[in-house]
Amino acid sequence: MHKHLLAMAAAVQARAYHIGAPGSKWGPAELSQWRAEHIKSRPYDDDVVKVLDSLRDEYDVIEYGTLTYDGVSHKLYAARSKDWNNRPKVLVTGGVHGYETSGVHGALRLLQTKCKDYAERGLDILVAPCVSPWGYEHIQRWNYDAVDPNRSFKRNDPDACGSQEARALVNLVRNHGSDGWACHIDLHETTDTDESEFQPAKAARDGDVYEEGTIPDGFYLCGDEKNPRLEFQRAVIKGVSDVTHIAPADPDGTIIGSKVVADGVILYDYTALGLCGGVTDAPLTTTTEVYPDSAKATAEECNKAQVESVLSALDFLLAERSWGPAVKALGGGMP
Q: Between β-strands 220-224 and 284-290, what pairing exists: parallel, antiparallel or unpaired?
């Protein structure tokens, strides 16, 4: 028994994060150390804002808030189809986790390519390509306060949102009407650093013991367990499979510990977890997960997979005739 306890203690020590004491939540000193270790590594203004500025002739580019951390401010922008006119509404979000690069660049690529075509086919489309600029610049999952924006959304109460990023996006959505949202695609990645950095850091921050997980090799979706719409999820998976490979289930039938309910599809409770995917009442919602660290994928392929996931979702929406009461109440407007 003594040897067993020593082995357990050694395993915990080996997996302990370098900030904080095992079993103790972070305080101000630990947060300050974490902040000091992360420097700006890429420019939000050049990579995101300048691209949006170049698209102003094609879209209404909206400033929907400002994030300010330690005296440094980032303005938040979204692009909206110019013919916005009370038709079925689509929300596309990227960069809720700023370090997930293809979520940001996939959303921008969508705007640069086929997004306008779908707006002309009868949809009002709103794209927020980089919800977390500080996270983007510092290549971090969390924001400056070591808060995960994608666990802090409260759709019906912006003031209760646990991050500036979530609060600003909730207000943006509300300003475009609480009804009539037909579809929301939230663009994410699962990376090797989820297990090498962010999960150990989360355990340390919360005073927990890190338990090693697995990283799926390939693309997968996370639907809303309260509204799974598996036919919709399957349509997105089918479209993306032409661009990149779909993640297989682990031997126990799970992906990242959640039961696989269809090829490449797992479910989370969006609202209970405070996920961005629950920011609207849209009947069609999904969260993409691209794997950029795969030996079988490139950065370009990941960006294309994000774009294809949106296009497949919109194709399904345009072909579907049962979007739910919120969309049916709009009456016409669809081709």
A: antiparallel
